[in-house]
Specification:
- The structure is a homohexamer.
- The first copy, chain A, folds into two domains: about 110 residues, Quinolinate phosphoribosyl transferase, N-terminal domain (Aldehyde Oxidoreductase, domain 3, Alpha-Beta Complex); about 150 residues, TIM Barrel.
- Helix content of chain A is about 40%, strand content about 20%.
- Chain A has nine helices and twelve strands.
- In chain A, helix 1 packs across helix 2 and helix 3 crosses helix 4.
- Chains in contact: A-B, A-C, A-D, A-E, A-F, B-C, B-D, B-E, B-F, C-D, C-E, C-F, D-E, D-F, E-F.
- The interface between A and B is large, with 75 and 76 residues.
Chain lengths: ~280, ~280, ~280, ~280, ~280, ~280
């Protein structure tokens, strides 16, 4: 996190620093507030604090909310005080983190709410479709928004997808995975119900139903509940939107993965208002 | 760019590498295609190439399109061939860059098109509201989408905003800027028409009209054309959407800045289809 | 890997370079061989190649063996040729990687062999007790030695240990883990047979029997097979040595974790002999 | 040191952090102790402190021992207190440094003690056969164990080895070294007594006797004392073990280099016991 | 700045640390002073403080002067106190920054003074001819010496030089620049008066007169004042020395760029005197 | 070296790249030459090549001279050809390295020549007063200029200076050094002839005569030759200029250290001329 903030500040300040802030009278102090201009869920507090702190340890921030809290338009998220030049130099970097990560949390929450109304046993989780360099921060923002995290990386678990199946059969893949990577998340992507049967028989711990409609999902869930281990989980991906996600939840999926919550979340608009 | 790709691969592969790819039979080769699943503008080719190359120099990519080219759903962007395991290990990172940057270019183009229809003399440019760590790549994607770049960083030019004006007057700020930072971009944010008069008189090279409606913009533009230097530029920001951007263009702004093209651009969906 | 090699070369060469090699006559060429001075298993070939390549692209290496192959004392592992000064400058760094990683692979193989003779169904895996900075390389060396990898990091799976149990009960921990981190490796360390019952009942996917003797292990394995899911795995740790590991395997453990293979593996002695 | 710790924490925590610690109840605090499970010499205190500090500044450590102090099985090395989750997240990284570096110090001490009993004028020093990336830390651990450091890098001094002598004669090498690298450590590896004569005549400051038996060493020492400068030093390497090292000391070597103390030191087993 | 200091300390201390300081008696404390041995302008205080702080937080520094203040030979710049070993270990790195950056500020001031006497409306600014890796620090030192900064990087503004004009005409270059990089510094290098006419007509904001004599400059300035925008600036470069700079100022240039202030500034000699 | 070049390019190009080069017509190619505008010694060829290569592998460079060769004004050092935009983007970074390092080599050569005429047995060497971050490159440039290198870092040898002697006596310092850091460069700074006696008696390998006049140096040299070991070396520092250096050489010093060759060397002016 420290490195991500340092990188962001460097790309905004090198080589000459903040030209505009250099014009301010020396010693000018500021009191201001971070204010939401939209509604959503707060995330990224620590990044914002780190940005202000890396610019100037003399900046003080008092938060009125925590990561994961709901945010309403016009709501004050934090009071910021310190040297005016320092506050304005750090402002944009702090807000870029806060806005982006709160945006991720906010969109996550909308999916989580839609699912919760449809089926409280279903959960929303994320994908590896994250913004390059921000994987860890975005996955934390997903948690702040009430979602859970699918595997953090290719190193964390086995997910046999359609492209892998061009090179090996489901049964062989699952057997190898149990041999080479014991104890781990072991999931197979299935596009057809026959593959579900195969995956469950081979001993997959998760079955990923990709690009099916809710009815197909319901049929596959029934199959898994009947043939699988009590703990075999069913995930749905593809064709999932805020409109359709409730139907997939009602179809009985344990988990619904949504790429959009990390790759297409609009920013939560947050500004800094300095008191005149 | 090399570092950004290396960071993204590291966050996806450490410490054990790609567990699933390790299950594939040794020597399996792949031929596949990068295929668009939506329409927009391509950007980020070099990042995608770098991701494949860092994983395995044996992967070959032949592009059918260049950055900045239009993309239609189903269109093949490139042919990819090489060791199956390597291709699948690099796939997600390559696509994360390509999808995100093409998303930025695509949304930029929509704004650019809307503006071009309304007033060919007006241009769309970006802001410093970029994703932390990706400033340079996103600004290049904006150019691929037909937009231009506002200042790349706080170090590149002077932009006196409302928060700065809590600490100094417009006239003093502009005079100091000319003294300390000669020759540079020198812009003043104005919320009221009186400020425009003040900024132009002081010698600002750009006037930023923030949160005004098109009529106010039109009045301010007239003022600038009358009182300003022949090369004084007028920028509009705030309240700008795909619906309203045409009105602002027709009001005569030289430049319209849109934060959304970098901070809220949805991904352009691109997939990798391996031939079976 | 590239970074680890660059770091190792930097710590051996900065700031003045190789003083001794600078004394050699310009243009002197070398032909030499990497020769084992002990027996074991080869690992780390790519690191050695990278070290030579970073010093001088003109150095050529022809390997006679691959990672994972058995090595006998006196055996030639590779032929090296190139500028004498470059070869000698890279030598120690290349050998430090090769010796250390082959040492890890070699000790792993000794455990794997001892286990295989006792119980072919039992496997040896590693721990997080790795050398700081070399986690990924050492885990790969374990695989070269025939072992498998336990979780690569704290981020990869849940392992509730005795120290965690000072803060929560087994049942609660497992339930939370299933809720927060669905689908993942979920293991509970048990020091007593009662804990095994509790862990299995809660739904742990792995049970770690710590510091038990083989008889206790046998009893716990029986318990797990009776009460657990068909796929619940039993791991043994603590008190494991080359002498005792066979007894633990015969007691029926699925997996035996051995910290020594990464934290206490003596180097495999490998030298570079330049032909006079 | 800060970077080495940051790297080690990153490889253990990215991208999702410590999954298991996330299950602990918020606000749970821990008091615990770092306890030795074997005997040896402590080293690496600062690395352990840095690891805890990088995770959470609220963790407090009170040491009962210093680097270089003897450690007995069961001895408490330090008391640790702070948030339970933070303590457990940092635990393994802190212990990996502490165990590895204390292992280096402990094995060094065993050699130092064996030498001291045989000949108090002889000293043990290390080699460049260190673990990649940990050169500085391991060389400090050798000092903690009572050893001294041979050159830290290729950049620090001249050591003409057998492989160099394939490209130049001893006399020429020494003369060039005095010319190009005045004032520095200047050592020649000798496999035969004739080379000793040659090296001393050329003006080497150290003579390295490689792979000789104690009788040969004694003869060479006599030769150096007779023909050399009063300050010419004799070093022994090769064939050195805990059993043989006393014989080499008695043969009159000034310095005995031991690669094993850095490349093959078993860990000193140290654990963290949290009070229930 | 933190990274530049860390890099400098690493190149002075790795891998064994400060051998000489290790000989000092434990607990020895020092009081000393940073004393100028020449006259000039102070710059680089923050780098020096950072160097001492990175070595030991216990070192205290009290400055008697600020960056930009005049320095006389023998003058005490700061009092330093703390552990003797730490102070001496950090000394050289701190002084290397302080001496180099004060050297840049001092030479800048000499040019600034020479210009001020000749024409108070003319200013001295720097170039991109900076020491690799120290751009930001040297540009700050120029400001401390009373100079201003030309563009910080190629990314900050457009400067069309003679080499660019081998590939395009002045008019086309300026027109493209206004189109692609609106609002930015836009400068054209002119070797002949005809080019000045062309550049001004095209709308360049700055005209760079390269390698002209003062008379030619005077003629070109007259031309610009007559034909250009009221804010078009004239810069002189080439053939500028402490002797000639006054003539160029009197010729009416707005800005004179001097590469020597960053690429050829002799160090300001500053030493550390420890009280006995 | 690769990192130093990458850092220098980053500080010149981020975040928007080379604005001016972006204006050039696509496909424009350049042929040009690196031409000296002054006389001196070439150094830094590899850095310049690396800068061009990191920007564009398609740029080709043919050198007519090697590092260490004499350079006359107007002489062509290399021919450069490739895409015009790439060549111009890399130009300044390549020249900054080349000019600075050749400047170091050139000033070194002037001292070396002055010394050679006075006393062929005396050599010029450098100090640790190098530009932060460029230690290794500047020390190589000193060698290119015919000088030799004093210790590369504090880690390489012992040099007891006046400030150290506030905390310990010469005899104790030398004895400790021989004990703790055997075989290494061991030097004592002496301001008075009594200290020389003391240092030689204690066994220092080098005696540094600081701030003495040539007569005092001659007396001290005589003392060392009489009382010291045949290989004890005498170094002179302080008060050394191009005018005085010959006198110190004639006084019999073995080595004369000159801080100015690294900290105050003016750039060797080198330009890139593109053929029209």
């Amino acid at each position: 996190m420290r490195d991500a903030v340092a990188l962001a500040l460097a790309e905004d300040l090198l080589p000459l620093g903040d030209l505009t802030a250099s014009l301010l009278p020396e010693g000018a102090m500021a009191r201001g507030a971070l204010v939401a201009r939209g509604s959503g869920v707060l995330a990224g507090r620590r990044c914002a604090m780190e940005a202000f702190a890396q610019i100037d340890r003399a900046i003080e921030i008092e938060w009125t909310l925590d990561d994961g809290d709901d945010v309403a338009p016009g709501q004050v998220l934090a009071h910021v005080s310190g040297p005016l030049a320092s506050v304005l130099t750090a402002e944009r970097t702090a807000l870029n983190f806060l806005g982006h990560l709160s945006g991720v949390a906010s969109l996550t929450q909308r999916y989580v709410d839609a699912v919760a109304q449809a089926n409280p046993a279903t959960r929303v989780w994320d994908t590896r479709k994250t913004t390059p360099g921000l994987r860890a921060l975005e996955k934390a923002a997903v948690r702040a928004g009430g979602g859970v995290n699918h595997r953090g990386s290719l190193s964390e678990g086995v997910l046999v997808k359609d492209n892998h199946l061009t090179g090996m059969a489901i049964g062989d893949a699952v057997a190898s995975a149990r041999q080479l990577w014991p104890g781990r998340l072991l999931e197979v992507e299935c596009d057809r119900i026959e593959q579900v049967t195969e995956a469950v028989a081979a001993g997959a711990g998760l079955v990923l139903l990709d690009n099916m409609d809710p009815d197909q999902v319901q049929a596959c869930v029934a199959l898994v509940r009947q043939q699988g281990n009590a703990r075999t989980l069913v995930e749905v991906s593809g064709r999932v939107s805020l409109e359709s996600v409730g139907d997939y939840a009602r179809a009985g999926a344990d988990l619904i993965s949504v790429g959009a919550i990390t790759h297409s979340a609009p920013v939560l608009d947050i500004g800094l208002d300095v008191e005149t």
